[in-house]
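Entry — protein

Goal — fold tokens:
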Amino acid sequence: QVQLVESGGGLVKPGGSLRLSCAASGFTFSSYVLTWVRQAPGKGLEWVSDINSSGVSTYYTDSLKGRFTISRDNAKNTLYLQMNSLKPDDTAVYYCGRGLGYGTYDYWGQGTQVTVSS
């Protein structure tokens, strides 16, 4: 069955960096768009970034461009999110998901908590 397992979250100070990973199994990883979304405490889901199946094309929500970088390793069936210059507003649970195109997604991981605090 399709599984997406996030890791790499934790507590980091403002200005710090984290790299999230999402290990995938149960499907042909290299055939799918993948995504990161996040949910801050008390708020709804916020789309963060998408990457196409080959990894050549990436997309970001405007407010995060330049600080976050999405990437993938199709040989390792793993998706990444490099987060730099972290701010307290980046505190959220981060989820990876499998895309079907046209902004639709069908499977999600369990999430990893990122807390940015001094």
